[in-house]
Amino acid sequence: MCSMRAAARACAHSEQQRLWTGYTTCRQAKMFLKGPDLAVTRYALSIRRRDMHCLVGIITEHVALNRHLKLIGVKDNSICPLCSEKEETALHFLGQCPAALVTIWQRVLGTHPLTALELGKVKFLNLIRFAHSSGRFTAP
Fold first, then answer.
1. Cα gap 60→68, rounded to integer Å
2. What is the distance between the alpha carbons of residues 40 and 43, in angstroms, rounded to a whole number?
3. C or N: which end of the chain has fewer Cβ atoms within 10 Å?
4. In sequence order, which ranges of the chain are alpha helices (DSSP H)?
5. What does pTM read for this prediction?
6. Cα distance between the two ends of the chain
7. What confidence tens digit (pLDDT) does each residue in 20-68 have?
8. Which residues contact 118 (CB under 8 A, 6 or more apart)?
9. Percentage of the chain exceeding pLDDT 70
10. pLDDT of 1-25, one tens digit each?
11. Separation CA 8–CA 131 (nearest Å)
């Protein structure tokens, strides 16, 4: 009985991994999540609902930043209001905007600017801290 359960779990994990790597969209989520991970799931389930909402928003890019707001028809343009140079995405705001709350950025995230690869390695707790400190990712 135990070996059947273990075999089923291994098969399900293998299928999840195959789907994750074969799926060509979700580039933002793939920057933060390397695939199905039980430790990440446990962490996410252990945090407060407000923090979970914030983290999921950052990972999926479904947050109150101009790119997403333009996609859903709330805003007319997707340009970053802080630097007025590029599209305001989570990657831009969290890691690359030259005008984005640099003191909070350096205190919470460290170096400035961050590449997508570096940002993908930032601990989720630090992403949540930065997001709450900035006031840009909170739910209305």
1. 10
2. 5
3. C
4. 2-22, 27-32, 38-46, 49-60, 66-71, 90-91, 102-108, 116-119, 124-134
5. 0.71
6. 49
7. 666 666 666 767 777 777 888 888 889 999 998 888 888 888 888 899 8
8. 95, 111
9. 84
10. 567 777 777 777 677 666 666 666 6
11. 38
pLDDT of 114: 78
Task: Tell me which of 21 and 84 has the higher pLDDT.
Answer: 84
DSSP character for 135? T
- Give burial (CB, 10 Å; 0-12/13-18/19+) of 140: exposed
Under the banding of pLDDT at 50, 70 and 90, the label for residue 140 is very low
**Domain boundaries defined on the chain:** 26-134
What is the Cα–Cα distance from 72 to 90, expressed in whole angstroms? 16
Q: Which residue has 């400035």 as its token pair?
A: 112
Closest CA to 139 of 76, 48, 77: 48
Instruction: Write down how long the chain is.
Output: 140
Per-residue burial over 25-49, b if 16 or more Cβ lie within 10 Å, else e, is eeebebbbeeeeeeeeeeeeeeeee
Select from 124, 98, 99 the least CA-distant residue to 109: 124
